[in-house]
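Extended Data, panel c. Modelled sequence:
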Amino acid sequence: MALDVYFREDVAQGIVSIAVAMLSTSVAHGGTNLEYCRGVLDTVRAQAVSYGIPWTSLMTDLRAILLESERSDVLDLVSRSLSSR
């Protein structure tokens, strides 16, 4: 079996894309559950740590994508989740 090589940037993008999908879906279904949001962010943080990706850069990417996608509703939920810790 051959080894597949992945770059950290590719892995980081994959992690962020899953976080965006999970958070956006939650909000789209009326979710404002901060505990769910914390769980998603904790999962994203754990994945980042496992691949040696700095958490701050991952959160920067997540915020940028949410702003670019005009998903301020999701960004607000993330901000509330982080500030209530």
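The first helix runs from residue 8 to 28. This feature is highlighted in the accompanying rendering.
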